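BUG: 3D viewer hangs when loading the predicted structure for this chain

Environment: internal workstation, default settings.
Expected: structure renders.
Actual: progress bar stalls at 90%.

Input used:
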Amino acid sequence: MSFVRTVLGDINPSDLGVTYAHEHVILDAPIVEDRFPHILLDDASVAVEELAACADAGVGAMVDAMPCGVGRDAVRLAAISEATGLNVVATTGLHTRKWYPGLCWANELAPEQLAELFIADIEEGIDRFDYRGPYVERTRHRAGIVKIGTMQEEPNERDRRVFAAAAITHRATGVPILTHCEEGRGGLEQVELLRQLGVDPQAVVLSHTDKVDDYDYHLALAATGAYVEYDQALRHRISEESTTVRMAATLVAAGFGRQVMLGTDGARRSLWSGYGGRPGLVALMRDVVPVLTRAGLSDEEISHIMVHNPASFLAFGEVVS
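Structure tokens produced before the viewer hung:
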């Protein structure tokens, strides 16, 4: 039977409900506090307040897209999930090189060695110390997705090793793969590399692609068979003219409506009500979804974007021996 792996255990995909597909619930690491304090999300009580508002608006699940070593905290994610009733999917994998200064293991290990860490996060439990120290203490909270990314359109040598590790992990566990597309670009190259590594594009979601206002690019991404995840709506004026809404409507009209998902990529204190920002993460459900209706999408089409597509994507696939 297919399942989605959350920090509190495995659930039936149909139990996810409305799903935010790319979030940052806890983002707390020394590099973040030192170099990127505007994205520091370190207060679990604030997260409970913010996510509770989303739950009250009808949201059932969130993907916390923070991978190894850069600020994830499985214990706090589990506590937040318990307090709000939201299903939370935690992430393994690696972000791009810039997030790992001085962490040689993240930038130099072979694909097989990295895959051992990723698989352990998925099958045994995420390290309480987030692989930032010499000692590993596995929690009971397991990862349900693996994240990788590129900083440019063509993957470099480090990217290829990390992508190879993700492919090994996917084949061994059936875990879905989420990618970071810097400035929305590089999605086509990412899908092609993963295809060469034996990964079906239907097991891949490409994040941040609505940073690119180019209809042909989005249609080409969808034509690969991969999912696309749009997450920039809260950073701009929420209207029918936003890139997020226009590109989602374009893909639906072109017959790719079952490959679109939405998130907030809420790694900004300025977006969270609880940190004094606006419009708050609840705005995706409260404000953006009604705009999709005004843009001409039917209730069924919106239900696929917000409910059925994430459930299908997040369900673990067949293990390839």
